[in-house]
Design a protein that fits this description.
CATH class of one domain: Mainly Beta
CATH topology of one domain: Jelly Rolls
Mean pLDDT: 90
Number of helices: 16
Structural class: alpha+beta
CATH architecture of one domain: Sandwich
Largest sheet: 6 strands, antiparallel
Strand content: 15-25%
Low-confidence stretches: 2-30, 462-476
Shape: globular
Helix content: 10-25%
Length: 736
Amino acid sequence: MKKGTRRISLTLFHIWIFLNMVLISSAAPAGGETLFDFEPPFDVNTAITQDAKAELVEREGNTLLRINMGHAERWPGVTLKAPKGKWDLTNHRAVALDVKNIGNKAVTVSCRVDNPGANGYSENCIMDWVYLKPEESKTLKVFLCVTPWRFTKPLKLIGMRESPDISDKIDPSGVTQLILSVPENYDYLPKTDHAIEVDNIRAEGELKTMDAEAFFPFIDKFGQFIHADWPGKTRDEKDLKERAKTEKKDLENHPGPRGWNRYGGWKNGPRFKATGFFRAEKHKGKWWLIDPEGRLFWSLGIDCVRFDAFDADTRWSNGTALTDREHYFKDLPKRDSPLGRFYVKSSQVPSGYYKGKGTFETFTFSESNLLRKYGKDYEASYMELVHRRLRSWGQNTIGNWSDGRTKALRKTPYVATFDLISSRKIEGSGSKHLWKFPDPFSPDFRTDLRERLERERAGLSSWSFRLGKHVHNEELGGIASDPWCLGIFVDNEMGWGDDISLALASLASPPDQPAKIAFLEDLKTRYKEIRNLNDAWGTDHASWNDLLRATETPDEKKAGPDLRDFYTRIAEEYFRVCRGEVRRASPNHLYLGCRFQGSNDRAVRAAAKYCDVLSYNPYCYDVSEYRPPSGVDMPVIIGEFQFGAIDRGMFSSDLVETENQEDRAEKYKSYVQGALRNPFYVGAHWFQYYDEAATGRPDGENNQTGFVDVCDTPYDETVQAAREVGDILYEYRLKN
């Protein structure tokens, strides 16, 4: 999962922090500071607009800033510069503004707080946003500091994308401007004009001073934040065992939605031809999946349903890193104790503090708490419990990157996934925020995928990793003949860029790049002679070999038609090869695509040509109005969505924040039911089963993502919302 700048919302968490803090000394000034109230002498002409119009309006005796935003540009909105060059907001915790949606469509409004050199992503700026229904008003807050503390010296916390200290992305003493905008339109968001009214932009919030030395350690032996309290916090092993007993009764009272068959399909709904495997079909103007028994099926699931400390295939640790920061943690278990098995050495990390630092040590609090809670034989019993939980929670699918042993019990349908890690990449592709793109013209692209699929087919890869005694079918093989496998994803959140990016990347690559060689063959066919290409592109290449050796890219406007044509060819070749290999290895299963996050119409149309189901990871508040590119009519599945809050001891709410657990549950229900109303969607998978570690997974991501927390305690508010959705899942979709 690739994530951008993450900020968080004010919740009861901060109130509990105030009540539970110790060693707090003098307070900074508590008064707020007005940044803009739009009363005279404010001059609206000082607002810098992008695809927007700003004007002042009178409302009940107040002057407001009205912003009418178009959708021709990315991030339409206004920039408001500090009147005296900068603001010093050192003594304040947040920038806040009152905003109202006066349009007839829901809108997400963002506010970015900048220092000089802000790059709009994660350097010298922070951002927050709020979701508004038509005519809805809210206060948008951008927190300069996650917690209400100013420490006596910087904590210098490492390995965490969000921490309790003042954000390292912003210097509060030198804020130069604010940018109010509507986030850029990804494929899954409608493109429409919006209008908002803004007032009372201010800096607010009291900061307390805390001795930095007294802050450590700040994580207890269960992996929880020490300096706060909240409902459901685990205090000892007795709490863990009592909750296990309470949940057992709850699951007995809530076995799952009535009217579901064993696959989670609609037993009482229309019957279709049973093929023994999942497929997609349109019924009454809406796309559906059909389960192996011929019943309507809508895939509602959870990703990363796993609990193991280490993935042997990827060499990825599921714990939190200890190296260079063991002082963060209180009462870590001895390495020769029963809990010592959850210390793991790892070296694989794609980004963050530990990238390139060699081997580092991790500890997996989540799995250690399972041993404490369920005893030494927790693995077998917990896998059974997971299936009962999912059914009880109205879930009928185990999503991406989940435990092969749990899937192998064949009690809940699941998806399979393959990431093409080792095949050659287009060298000119990628950036600081995008992965390099695989070269589909390289022979190892096909052979790498074929090898991985063959291993899976034979039951030799992560799908069957450590099956052992927990699998009750001794003849169980891989996925090819398994009716419980819904379909197969290949890759995730790739760097598709705009509709010429991959063609430009090919030209910027070395002369032996297979994609570049394929591009030149196309150009030779079209132009015959190099002078003809030079005339069209305005270049002066001496020969085709000269172009092959060159890494400079041409004028995008003059070469645009050729660049777009080859972009289409790259995209189609990628999906063509993937589909062919998936069909070769597993002909009965759906090819679910690559889980787009940012892309363009050319990439999506290429996917539509070869995929059985399109897939997206739309991190937003509402997907009810999504439509694929014009002329494309096919099913779509959501590979990831999520909402987070920080009222239960976490430091980051992730990309799509909510105010608290109640709001999070409400957003879950609204999002899924919006997808159910949409005729294209055939499923939605939540990311993920567990919260990420408060101190971060190895790449630093530390979001409140889970249906359960680090102590295996389900978030009751979200569970109840999921049950409400699941209970009427099929009736709701058919009738709405």
